[in-house]
Automatic annotation (TrEMBL):
Signal peptide: none annotated. Keywords: Glycosyltransferase, Membrane, Transferase, Transmembrane, Transmembrane helix. The lineage of its organism: Bacteria, Candidatus Woeseibacteriota. GO terms for molecular function: dolichyl-phosphate beta-D-mannosyltransferase activity. Belongs to the glycosyltransferase 2 family. It comes from the Bacteria. InterPro entries: DPM1-like, Glyco_trans_2-like, Nucleotide-diphossugar_trans. GO terms for cellular component: membrane. Residues 6-170 form the Glycosyltransferase 2-like domain. The chain crosses the membrane at residues 247-268, 275-293, 299-325. This is Glycosyl transferase family 2. One of its GO terms (biological process) is glycolipid biosynthetic process.
Amino acid sequence: MEKVVIVMPAWNEVENIKSMVEVLTQDEFPKIGADMQLLIVDNHSTDGTAEAAEDASKKYNNVHIIQQKNSGLGWAYVSGMQYAIDELKADAILEMDADFQHPPRFVKPMVEAYLSGAEYVIGSRYIEGGSVPKEWAASRKAISFFGNLFIRTVLLNFKIHDLTTGFRLSKVRGVLDKIELVKLRDLDKFAYKVDLLYQSLKNSKKTVEVPLEFASRTKDKSKFNWKEMVATFKLAIILGIKDKQRFIKFGVVGFTGFLVNYLGLEFLKRMGLTTYWAVIVQPLVVNGATTLFGDTSLIRLAGLLFALFLVVVPYNYIVYNLFIWRTWKIPKFFKRD
Ligand SMILES: Nc1nc2c(ncn2[C@@H]2O[C@H](COP(=O)(O)OP(=O)(O)O)[C@@H](O)[C@H]2O)c(=O)[nH]1
Ligand SMILES: [Mg+2]
Protein backbone atom coordinates (compact mmCIF):
# COMPACT_ATOMS: atom_id res chain seq x y z
CA MET A 1 0.00 0.00 0.00
CA GLU A 2 1.20 3.50 -0.83
CA LYS A 3 2.33 5.47 2.19
CA VAL A 4 1.20 9.09 2.20
CA VAL A 5 2.56 11.37 4.92
CA ILE A 6 0.81 14.64 5.67
CA VAL A 7 3.44 17.16 6.73
CA MET A 8 1.70 19.71 8.91
CA PRO A 9 3.57 22.69 10.37
CA ALA A 10 1.98 24.00 13.52
CA TRP A 11 3.00 27.00 15.49
CA ASN A 12 0.83 27.81 18.49
CA GLU A 13 -2.13 25.83 17.17
CA VAL A 14 -2.97 23.72 20.22
CA GLU A 15 -6.76 23.71 19.78
CA ASN A 16 -6.56 23.25 16.03
CA ILE A 17 -4.08 20.40 16.37
CA LYS A 18 -6.24 18.52 18.86
CA SER A 19 -9.30 18.55 16.62
CA MET A 20 -7.29 18.10 13.42
CA VAL A 21 -5.76 14.87 14.72
CA GLU A 22 -9.20 13.50 15.60
CA VAL A 23 -10.87 14.51 12.34
CA LEU A 24 -8.06 13.07 10.22
CA THR A 25 -7.49 9.81 12.04
CA GLN A 26 -11.15 9.09 12.82
CA ASP A 27 -13.13 10.51 9.90
CA GLU A 28 -10.86 10.93 6.90
CA PHE A 29 -8.06 8.34 6.92
CA PRO A 30 -10.38 5.31 7.08
CA LYS A 31 -12.04 6.49 3.84
CA ILE A 32 -8.76 6.58 1.93
CA GLY A 33 -7.13 3.61 0.22
CA ALA A 34 -3.57 4.43 1.31
CA ASP A 35 -1.43 4.09 4.41
CA MET A 36 -2.09 7.58 5.82
CA GLN A 37 0.29 9.16 8.32
CA LEU A 38 0.29 12.57 9.98
CA LEU A 39 3.55 14.32 10.83
CA ILE A 40 3.23 17.49 12.89
CA VAL A 41 6.19 19.88 12.73
CA ASP A 42 6.28 22.17 15.74
CA ASN A 43 8.45 25.23 16.15
CA HIS A 44 8.74 25.44 19.93
CA SER A 45 5.16 26.62 20.36
CA THR A 46 4.42 28.18 23.71
CA ASP A 47 0.76 27.13 23.96
CA GLY A 48 1.17 23.39 24.41
CA THR A 49 0.97 22.39 20.76
CA ALA A 50 3.92 20.04 21.14
CA GLU A 51 2.42 18.35 24.21
CA ALA A 52 -0.91 17.87 22.45
CA ALA A 53 0.85 16.39 19.43
CA GLU A 54 2.97 14.21 21.71
CA ASP A 55 -0.18 12.83 23.37
CA ALA A 56 -1.75 12.19 19.99
CA SER A 57 1.34 10.34 18.77
CA LYS A 58 1.09 8.01 21.78
CA LYS A 59 -2.60 7.43 21.19
CA TYR A 60 -2.35 6.83 17.42
CA ASN A 61 0.61 5.10 15.84
CA ASN A 62 0.14 6.95 12.56
CA VAL A 63 0.60 10.36 14.21
CA HIS A 64 4.13 11.72 14.63
CA ILE A 65 5.73 14.91 15.86
CA ILE A 66 9.12 16.52 15.36
CA GLN A 67 10.65 19.87 16.28
CA GLN A 68 12.18 21.94 13.53
CA LYS A 69 15.72 23.27 13.95
CA ASN A 70 15.72 26.55 11.99
CA SER A 71 12.86 28.99 12.20
CA GLY A 72 10.50 29.82 9.35
CA LEU A 73 7.69 28.08 7.54
CA GLY A 74 9.92 26.73 4.77
CA TRP A 75 12.19 25.07 7.29
CA ALA A 76 9.20 23.48 8.96
CA TYR A 77 8.24 21.85 5.67
CA VAL A 78 11.80 20.89 4.79
CA SER A 79 12.42 19.27 8.19
CA GLY A 80 9.10 17.49 7.91
CA MET A 81 9.70 16.28 4.37
CA GLN A 82 13.16 14.99 5.18
CA TYR A 83 11.84 13.11 8.19
CA ALA A 84 8.93 11.74 6.19
CA ILE A 85 11.26 10.49 3.47
CA ASP A 86 14.13 9.18 5.60
CA GLU A 87 12.38 7.92 8.72
CA LEU A 88 8.79 7.24 7.70
CA LYS A 89 9.65 6.02 4.17
CA ALA A 90 6.92 8.08 2.56
CA ASP A 91 5.91 7.39 -1.05
CA ALA A 92 4.16 10.75 -1.25
CA ILE A 93 3.95 13.87 0.88
CA LEU A 94 0.98 16.17 1.33
CA GLU A 95 1.62 19.71 2.55
CA MET A 96 -1.23 20.85 4.76
CA ASP A 97 -1.82 23.62 7.30
CA ALA A 98 -3.01 22.94 10.83
CA ASP A 99 -5.54 25.77 10.97
CA PHE A 100 -8.37 24.10 9.00
CA GLN A 101 -7.89 26.46 6.05
CA HIS A 102 -7.28 23.27 4.10
CA PRO A 103 -10.46 21.43 5.10
CA PRO A 104 -9.70 17.79 5.93
CA ARG A 105 -12.35 16.51 3.52
CA PHE A 106 -10.09 17.54 0.64
CA VAL A 107 -7.33 15.13 1.64
CA LYS A 108 -9.16 12.21 0.04
CA PRO A 109 -9.48 13.64 -3.51
CA MET A 110 -5.83 14.76 -3.38
CA VAL A 111 -4.63 11.29 -2.45
CA GLU A 112 -6.93 9.69 -5.00
CA ALA A 113 -5.46 11.84 -7.78
CA TYR A 114 -2.04 10.56 -6.72
CA LEU A 115 -3.21 6.95 -6.56
CA SER A 116 -4.52 7.28 -10.10
CA GLY A 117 -1.13 8.32 -11.45
CA ALA A 118 -0.48 11.99 -10.75
CA GLU A 119 3.01 12.81 -9.49
CA TYR A 120 2.17 16.31 -8.34
CA VAL A 121 -1.30 17.27 -7.14
CA ILE A 122 -2.23 20.90 -6.56
CA GLY A 123 -5.17 21.88 -4.37
CA SER A 124 -6.55 24.65 -6.53
CA ARG A 125 -8.85 27.51 -5.54
CA TYR A 126 -9.11 28.81 -9.07
CA ILE A 127 -10.66 25.92 -10.95
CA GLU A 128 -14.29 24.82 -11.03
CA GLY A 129 -15.28 23.54 -7.61
CA GLY A 130 -12.53 25.48 -5.84
CA SER A 131 -12.99 28.78 -4.01
CA VAL A 132 -11.64 31.34 -1.57
CA PRO A 133 -13.66 32.21 1.56
CA LYS A 134 -16.80 34.24 0.94
CA GLU A 135 -16.02 36.25 4.08
CA TRP A 136 -12.79 37.55 2.61
CA ALA A 137 -12.84 41.27 1.86
CA ALA A 138 -12.83 42.16 -1.83
CA SER A 139 -9.31 43.54 -1.48
CA ARG A 140 -8.03 40.26 -0.06
CA LYS A 141 -9.71 38.31 -2.87
CA ALA A 142 -8.21 40.68 -5.41
CA ILE A 143 -4.72 40.34 -3.92
CA SER A 144 -4.91 36.55 -3.93
CA PHE A 145 -6.27 36.41 -7.47
CA PHE A 146 -4.00 39.02 -9.05
CA GLY A 147 -0.96 37.85 -7.10
CA ASN A 148 -1.54 34.40 -8.46
CA LEU A 149 -2.06 35.73 -11.97
CA PHE A 150 1.15 37.72 -11.64
CA ILE A 151 3.15 34.62 -10.70
CA ARG A 152 1.55 32.65 -13.52
CA THR A 153 2.69 35.35 -15.90
CA VAL A 154 6.28 35.72 -14.71
CA LEU A 155 6.72 31.96 -14.55
CA LEU A 156 4.92 31.69 -17.90
CA ASN A 157 2.76 28.94 -16.57
CA PHE A 158 -0.81 29.27 -17.72
CA LYS A 159 -1.62 25.59 -17.49
CA ILE A 160 -1.81 25.63 -13.71
CA HIS A 161 -4.44 27.90 -12.22
CA ASP A 162 -3.28 28.16 -8.61
CA LEU A 163 0.43 28.60 -8.11
CA THR A 164 0.25 30.02 -4.60
CA THR A 165 -1.78 27.39 -2.80
CA GLY A 166 -0.21 25.68 0.20
CA PHE A 167 -2.13 22.43 -0.28
CA ARG A 168 -0.05 20.19 -2.51
CA LEU A 169 0.86 16.54 -2.76
CA SER A 170 4.11 15.33 -4.31
CA LYS A 171 5.38 11.93 -5.13
CA VAL A 172 8.73 11.30 -3.46
CA ARG A 173 10.46 9.25 -6.17
CA GLY A 174 11.29 11.39 -9.14
CA VAL A 175 9.79 14.60 -7.81
CA LEU A 176 10.78 15.43 -4.22
CA ASP A 177 13.91 13.31 -4.02
CA LYS A 178 15.35 15.21 -6.99
CA ILE A 179 15.10 18.50 -5.13
CA GLU A 180 17.80 19.69 -2.76
CA LEU A 181 15.34 20.73 -0.10
CA VAL A 182 17.79 22.57 2.14
CA LYS A 183 18.86 24.68 -0.83
CA LEU A 184 15.39 25.98 -1.63
CA ARG A 185 15.31 29.76 -1.72
CA ASP A 186 13.69 31.84 1.03
CA LEU A 187 13.14 28.98 3.45
CA ASP A 188 12.64 31.48 6.25
CA LYS A 189 9.69 33.00 4.40
CA PHE A 190 6.45 31.88 2.77
CA ALA A 191 8.09 32.62 -0.60
CA TYR A 192 9.97 29.28 -0.55
CA LYS A 193 6.68 27.78 -1.78
CA VAL A 194 7.25 29.31 -5.21
CA ASP A 195 10.67 27.65 -5.52
CA LEU A 196 9.33 24.31 -4.34
CA LEU A 197 6.47 24.56 -6.81
CA TYR A 198 8.76 25.61 -9.64
CA GLN A 199 11.08 22.64 -9.15
CA SER A 200 8.30 20.14 -8.50
CA LEU A 201 6.53 21.16 -11.70
CA LYS A 202 9.74 20.55 -13.62
CA ASN A 203 10.22 17.08 -12.13
CA SER A 204 6.63 15.89 -12.25
CA LYS A 205 5.60 13.93 -15.31
CA LYS A 206 1.93 14.33 -14.53
CA THR A 207 0.53 17.29 -12.62
CA VAL A 208 -3.15 17.69 -11.86
CA GLU A 209 -5.24 20.26 -10.05
CA VAL A 210 -7.94 19.20 -7.63
CA PRO A 211 -10.53 21.73 -6.42
CA LEU A 212 -9.93 23.20 -2.97
CA GLU A 213 -12.47 25.27 -1.05
CA PHE A 214 -10.07 27.36 0.95
CA ALA A 215 -11.58 28.17 4.35
CA SER A 216 -10.95 31.19 6.53
CA ARG A 217 -8.85 30.90 9.61
CA THR A 218 -10.82 29.75 12.62
CA LYS A 219 -8.55 31.08 15.35
CA ASP A 220 -6.08 33.95 15.58
CA LYS A 221 -4.44 35.74 12.73
CA SER A 222 -2.47 34.57 9.73
CA LYS A 223 1.27 35.07 9.83
CA PHE A 224 1.23 36.09 6.18
CA ASN A 225 1.74 39.81 5.55
CA TRP A 226 2.80 42.41 2.99
CA LYS A 227 6.48 41.67 3.52
CA GLU A 228 5.89 37.99 2.80
CA MET A 229 3.89 38.91 -0.30
CA VAL A 230 6.61 41.14 -1.74
CA ALA A 231 9.19 38.41 -1.07
CA THR A 232 6.97 35.93 -2.89
CA PHE A 233 6.62 38.13 -5.99
CA LYS A 234 10.35 38.86 -5.95
CA LEU A 235 11.23 35.19 -5.90
CA ALA A 236 8.78 34.47 -8.74
CA ILE A 237 10.51 37.08 -10.88
CA ILE A 238 13.96 35.74 -10.01
CA LEU A 239 12.90 32.20 -10.94
CA GLY A 240 11.30 33.42 -14.15
CA ILE A 241 14.57 35.08 -15.12
CA LYS A 242 16.79 32.26 -13.88
CA ASP A 243 15.00 29.92 -16.22
CA LYS A 244 16.91 31.30 -19.22
CA GLN A 245 14.98 29.38 -21.84
CA ARG A 246 11.72 30.82 -20.58
CA PHE A 247 13.31 34.18 -20.15
CA ILE A 248 14.44 34.24 -23.79
CA LYS A 249 10.96 33.21 -24.92
CA PHE A 250 9.51 35.84 -22.63
CA GLY A 251 11.80 38.40 -24.25
CA VAL A 252 10.88 37.32 -27.78
CA VAL A 253 7.18 37.31 -27.00
CA GLY A 254 7.47 40.65 -25.23
CA PHE A 255 9.43 42.20 -28.07
CA THR A 256 7.07 41.05 -30.80
CA GLY A 257 4.22 42.25 -28.58
CA PHE A 258 5.91 45.60 -28.38
CA LEU A 259 6.35 45.67 -32.16
CA VAL A 260 2.72 44.77 -32.78
CA ASN A 261 1.59 47.45 -30.34
CA TYR A 262 3.91 50.02 -31.81
CA LEU A 263 3.00 49.30 -35.42
CA GLY A 264 -0.66 49.12 -34.48
CA LEU A 265 -0.43 52.50 -32.82
CA GLU A 266 1.32 54.02 -35.84
CA PHE A 267 -1.24 52.44 -38.14
CA LEU A 268 -4.16 53.81 -36.16
CA LYS A 269 -2.51 57.23 -36.03
CA ARG A 270 -2.16 57.26 -39.81
CA MET A 271 -5.79 56.23 -40.16
CA GLY A 272 -6.61 59.36 -38.19
CA LEU A 273 -7.70 57.45 -35.08
CA THR A 274 -6.31 58.82 -31.84
CA THR A 275 -7.61 56.23 -29.38
CA TYR A 276 -6.00 52.87 -29.05
CA TRP A 277 -7.44 49.60 -27.74
CA ALA A 278 -5.19 49.27 -24.65
CA VAL A 279 -6.10 52.83 -23.77
CA ILE A 280 -9.79 51.91 -23.92
CA VAL A 281 -9.47 48.70 -21.93
CA GLN A 282 -7.76 50.24 -18.90
CA PRO A 283 -10.27 52.92 -17.86
CA LEU A 284 -13.15 50.52 -18.53
CA VAL A 285 -11.72 47.84 -16.24
CA VAL A 286 -10.70 50.28 -13.52
CA ASN A 287 -14.18 51.83 -13.50
CA GLY A 288 -15.74 48.38 -13.39
CA ALA A 289 -13.52 47.31 -10.49
CA THR A 290 -14.24 50.42 -8.41
CA THR A 291 -17.98 50.05 -9.00
CA LEU A 292 -17.87 46.39 -7.95
CA PHE A 293 -15.41 46.45 -5.06
CA GLY A 294 -15.35 50.07 -3.89
CA ASP A 295 -13.21 53.04 -4.85
CA THR A 296 -10.00 52.60 -2.84
CA SER A 297 -6.46 53.07 -4.06
CA LEU A 298 -5.82 49.34 -3.64
CA ILE A 299 -8.75 48.45 -5.90
CA ARG A 300 -7.70 51.05 -8.45
CA LEU A 301 -4.19 49.58 -8.50
CA ALA A 302 -5.54 46.05 -8.77
CA GLY A 303 -7.89 47.19 -11.55
CA LEU A 304 -5.05 48.77 -13.43
CA LEU A 305 -2.89 45.66 -13.14
CA PHE A 306 -5.84 43.54 -14.17
CA ALA A 307 -6.41 45.69 -17.25
CA LEU A 308 -2.77 45.16 -18.12
CA PHE A 309 -3.23 41.42 -17.66
CA LEU A 310 -6.35 41.51 -19.83
CA VAL A 311 -4.13 42.62 -22.66
CA VAL A 312 -0.88 40.84 -21.78
CA VAL A 313 -2.13 37.44 -20.65
CA PRO A 314 -4.38 36.59 -23.62
CA TYR A 315 -1.76 37.94 -25.97
CA ASN A 316 1.01 35.81 -24.43
CA TYR A 317 -1.27 32.84 -24.23
CA ILE A 318 -2.20 33.04 -27.89
CA VAL A 319 1.34 33.64 -29.07
CA TYR A 320 2.58 30.77 -26.95
CA ASN A 321 0.00 28.37 -28.21
CA LEU A 322 0.43 29.36 -31.84
CA PHE A 323 4.18 29.64 -32.09
CA ILE A 324 5.90 28.11 -29.12
CA TRP A 325 3.90 25.20 -27.81
CA ARG A 326 2.23 24.86 -31.19
CA THR A 327 -0.83 23.38 -29.62
CA TRP A 328 -3.82 25.57 -30.02
CA LYS A 329 -6.09 25.73 -27.02
CA ILE A 330 -8.73 28.25 -26.10
CA PRO A 331 -7.84 29.95 -22.81
CA LYS A 332 -9.87 28.50 -19.99
CA PHE A 333 -8.54 30.37 -16.99
CA PHE A 334 -11.21 29.20 -14.62
CA LYS A 335 -11.62 25.67 -15.81
CA ARG A 336 -9.61 22.53 -15.70
CA ASP A 337 -7.82 21.68 -18.91
N1 LIG B 1 6.37 24.81 12.53
C1 LIG B 1 6.03 26.02 12.05
N2 LIG B 1 4.78 26.23 11.64
C2 LIG B 1 4.45 27.46 11.17
C3 LIG B 1 5.38 28.53 11.08
N3 LIG B 1 4.72 29.61 10.56
C4 LIG B 1 3.45 29.21 10.32
N4 LIG B 1 3.27 27.91 10.69
C5 LIG B 1 2.07 27.06 10.51
O1 LIG B 1 1.88 26.99 9.10
C6 LIG B 1 0.50 27.03 8.77
C7 LIG B 1 0.20 28.24 7.89
O2 LIG B 1 0.38 29.44 8.60
P1 LIG B 1 -0.66 30.65 8.54
O3 LIG B 1 -0.18 31.70 9.47
O4 LIG B 1 -2.04 30.15 8.75
O5 LIG B 1 -0.45 31.17 7.03
P2 LIG B 1 -1.51 31.40 5.86
O6 LIG B 1 -2.57 30.37 5.97
O7 LIG B 1 -0.71 31.28 4.62
O8 LIG B 1 -2.04 32.77 6.06
C8 LIG B 1 -0.24 27.01 10.09
O9 LIG B 1 -0.55 25.67 10.40
C9 LIG B 1 0.77 27.59 11.09
O10 LIG B 1 0.57 27.13 12.40
C10 LIG B 1 6.72 28.27 11.54
O11 LIG B 1 7.59 29.12 11.50
N5 LIG B 1 6.98 27.01 12.00
MG1 LIG C 1 -3.53 29.66 7.51
